[in-house]
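Sharing a chain and its predicted structure for anyone who wants a worked example. Both blocks are below, sequence first, tokens second.
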Amino acid sequence: DYSGYKDIFELIQSEIFNVRVDGTSVLTTKPLSLYLSPQVLYVVDDMIVSDISFINPVDVRTIDYIDGVDDSFYGSRGANGIIKITLKK
């Protein structure tokens, strides 16, 4: 139950330890090249989205951070890791 969080970014900051939240962006903590963005990929109900600010924490069933071999399913887009969110139906 994630109802105690005021927004999705507070939820991520408290529950996912391999990323950092900067305003409304979720960034990887992995060292990167100077030319790569540290932005992680957002996947909501198996769909890639560019914005997750619309998600109310009360509506979240599960939230996971995927990194390493498991992120290869998304190709180079998932190179910085993936925040995968499943919403309650």
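Comments welcome. The longest helix spans residues 8-15.
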